[in-house]
Amino acid sequence: MAVRDLQVAYGGTRVLHGVSLDFAPGSFTALLGSSGCGKTTLLRSLSGFVPVESGSIVVGGKDVAGLPPEKRGMAMVFQSYALWPHMTVLQNIGYGLKLRGKSKAEIAAKVAQMLSFLGLAGYEDRKVTALSGGQRQRVALGRALAIDPGILLLDEPLSNLDAKIRMTMRHEIRAIQQRLGLLAIHVTHDREEAMTMADRLVIMQAGRIAQIGTPEEVYDRPASAFVANFMGAENVLPLNIERGEGRASVTAGGTQATLAGEAAAALPAGEALAYFRDDVARLGAPDAAAAGGDLVVPGTIAARAYPGGTYRYKVAAAGREITVDDADRHELGTTIGLRIPLQRLHIFPASEAGIAA
Q1: pTM to 2 decimals?
Q2: pLDDT tens for residues 219-250?
């Protein structure tokens, strides 16, 4: 499937701004972003539930942007499951087949196949209201798969499940998608869910694509301050960078470190903001000498919690509050040195990074 320059507006307000994407057969893509970024609108535009203002949606060489949902060769699993409460499991799974005029024998055979495939054999005569959340999600998935779609659209299907069932269903859906060779597009705001299920992430911001890449690429090499922050690098440290011949001097919180070679050449000059995750920095003595490529920024322990396995600290440093996970116990009010490896920072010019600062 190929999407080209897709534009969508609600009541004069543009929601998608010329989105273009390619989806390979058998791939699993996650559309990831904060609320209101346009990811659900994009998914529903693909399905036909939201009309497009302009642009194309090409499936198998044919532009389906003007076709009704049932003519697009896609099936959708909704966040709310959208099951008929007065119907049995069998009737719900077979509902799409009935609408397509299939015979009772064809429906019965296909539903039996889906029940076996999804581990629901023996549940066909139960009302869906008598099922658990995970079982209802399997019924919703079975209804989508029963029509043999070429493309499976998933609109936050796991968000209403409790944590344990959600973990199980992540692996089940991915395994089913791989077994059937379906092209799957999954909308979520959950980073971990996207990274464990998808082989490609599309990060969306304000109706535009902020970055496309594998989970490793997007996590380790974010293209912007927004992506870095969204992918969990929520600590922000102001820097000043002076570049010389093959070297760069980095200053933060009154302390300085030096980088050389390619690492130095990649840094922006002047005022910058560094983004990093809670597990990057280490706590130590405030007067500890900085190793090559490390900053040691003085700070004060402002808060401490123990979520399990390690302590989580809030450290007041360089005019910011920095979150740090550290194995050692430190008392509140203690002056410490925040040791930060420069090569594990995501650094962007302050003029570009302000949106996530």
Answers
A1: 0.90
A2: 999 999 999 999 999 999 999 999 888 888 89
User: What are the tens digits of pLDDT across the range 302-347?
Assistant: 999 999 999 999 999 999 999 999 999 999 999 999 999 988 999 9
pLDDT 10s digits, 33-59 = 999 999 999 999 999 999 999 999 999
In the chain, where the domains are located: 2-228, 229-356
Q: How confident is the model at residue 357 (pLDDT cuts 50, 70, 90)?
A: very low
Q: Tokens in use for 77? A: 């699993």
Identify the helix (H) or strand (E) that includes residue 335: strand 335-341
- Using CA atoms, how far apart are residues 43 and 185, in angstroms rounded to an integer? 8
Q: CA 148 to CA 144: how far, in whole Å?
A: 8
Cβ–Cβ < 8 Å for 142, 96: no
Integer CA distances (angstroms), 202 to 61, 163, 184, 186, 223, in order: 23, 24, 13, 10, 12
Nearest CA-CA partner of 256 in 287, 286, 300, 297: 297
Tell which CATH classification among 3.40.50.150, 3.40.50.720, 3.40.50.300, 1.10.1370.30 matches the domain 2-228: 3.40.50.300
Q: Is 108 left (phi over 0), alpha (psi -120 to 50) or beta?
A: alpha
Query: How are strands ordered across the β-sheet holding 13-22?
Result: 13-22, 2-10, 54-59, 62-63
Residue type, 319: G
pLDDT, residue 61, reads 94
Phi, psi torsion values for 55, nearest 5 degrees: 110, 175
CATH code of domain 229-356: 2.40.50.140
